[in-house]
Amino acid sequence: MSVQTTRRTLLAAALAAPALLPQGARAQAAWPAGQPITLIIPFAPGGPTDAVGRMLAEAMSRDLGVNVVAQNVGGAGGTIGVNRVAQARPDGHTILLHNIGMSTAPTLYRRLPYNPLTAFETLGLVTATPMVWLTRPDFPAANFGEMIRLIREGGERINLGNAGLGSASQLCGTLLQASLGTRFTTVSFAGSGPIYPELMANRLDIYCDQTTSAIPFIQANQIKAMAVTTAEPLPAVPGVPTAIQGGLPGFEVAIWHGLYAPAGTPKPVQDRLNQALRAALADPRVVERMTGLGSPPEPVSRQNGEVHRAHLAAEIERWRPILQAAGQFAD
Ligand code: MLT
């Protein structure tokens, strides 16, 4: 039996039968045993994954009685942070929040160092977030139709920000390029957070981001919101039409997020983490804040590891042909 297997077996036994241990040892052995949990956010601070991750970390801390500490590990469209968790000890003290990129990276990266379906335990779906097309304040378009016209005319003179190959923003940009048959110039960052100063300073032209980080900038009139990517207009972004209404039939995309632990995390620990996730997503403060940012928690039936795993597998298959047709890959 390997050292790691022995460790996992002992941990599972401690969780399953704490009553067999003497009083003091019981408190020590039962996970999380007073030890903090690191929640890896695979993007820079200040973006949508960060916004959701920090809310979750705070609410899960309350339920678990230990600190859940959010740590940003950005780069390569989220794959660096994801790989950090794939390599972590499966002891429940390192977990991951990631988005739809978990399902697009296997097609986009020819040499991805992890397999999303075997390197992780899926702990439950968290939220599905709409996106919104944004422009810099001085971009000379009054509405989405004009934005489309200007980017068709501008082609590669138009700068589009994104959070790297495999990010949600990259996916949204790729879908727009495919719909229009146009190529823009893409500038990649380690997450959405660092893109906003560039957009507000008029150094980037356009960006497609999730409402969870875009709404505060829209409300402060620091950027222009052109269209949301939902089928119907979104109450959280009032007065902004859908991309479909703005002239792009079928342009609908929502960015799902899930919570993960490294493969081999003992089942009782997975179950406790799922319980903490569900408690966090039922917390009225979290529900109110997420709803106000356009991204209410997933229904309880989807805050579930098995549903999450099936969704991930289906999404990998769903995006593969679309991304292969778009033809942008990392080697
Ligand atoms: C993405 O584009 O995947 C995210 O917006 C990046 C982030 O959360 O910062």
Automatic annotation (TrEMBL):
- Judging by the UniProt lineage, the source's domain of life is Bacteria
UniProt cross-references to PROSITE patterns, sorted A to Z: TAT (PS51318)
Statement: the UniProt record of this protein carries the keyword Signal: yes
- The stretch of residues making up the signal peptide is 1-27
Q: Which Pfam families match?
A: TctC
UniProt keyword annotations, A-Z: Signal
State the family it belongs to: Belongs to the UPF0065 (bug) family.
Question: Mind telling me what this protein is named?
Answer: Tripartite tricarboxylate transporter substrate-binding protein
- What species is given as this protein's source? Falsiroseomonas tokyonensis
